[in-house]
Amino acid sequence: MHPTTAAFVATARDLGIEVVPRTFPEGTRTAEDAAAAIGVDVGQIVKSLAFRAVHEDGSTAVVMALVSGSNRLDEKALAAVAGADHTERADADEVRAATGYAIGGVPPFGHATALDVFVDRDLLAYDEVWAAAGTPNDVFPLTPDDLVRVAGGTVADLAR
Ligand code: 5CA
Hints:
By secondary structure, the protein is of the alpha/beta class. The chain is 28% helix and 26% strand. The chain has five helices and eight strands. The chain has helices at residues 3-14, 31-38, 75-82, 92-99, 144-151, and strands at 22-23, 45-54, 60-68, 86-89, 116-120, 129-132, 138-142, 154-156. Strands 1, 2, 3, 4, 5, 6, 7 and 8 form an eight-stranded mixed sheet that branches. 41% of the residues are buried. The mean pLDDT is 97. Residues 28-31, 34, 45-49, 89, 91-92, 103-106, 131-132, 136, 139 line the site of 5'-O-(N-(L-cysteinyl)-sulfamoyl)adenosine (5CA).
């Protein structure tokens, strides 16, 4: 197992979930790649998207949106639920600093810093969803209920 994925599994165990990752050498960097590799609906793939929430007073905080692979994130909805004026896409360095992971492998929880997490309600329609396990080749299945619980997420209507 890739050491980054092994570290994520250990972090997840501390958070109360037994993660069993699967490795796909062909790659799971995007939701479409992951769905094709695993053989599930793209809507079952959890995109872990980091955004900069910009508040009225100019302060910023990175927040995490967990979005169904078949949806486009509505940034206005994210800003509203995050109590921000607007949001901006985090850049690669910010993603790495806030989550501890590189784009393409960012897991939905177990981040390097405490991030507010918002979960796309459409993910709750599935019995099982799949998320990144730390690298662009490793993913793991879980129930939407576990996703919300372990991420400490707030369920919201995030699709546009
Ligand atoms: N492993 C897959 C499926 S679980 C995965 O991580 N998908 S993802 O959607 O969570 O991560 C890829 C996302 O990172 C893209 O949808 C895109 O929104 C974002 N991204 C890609 N490149 C950049 C970049 N240069 N800066 C900021 N965000 C980016």
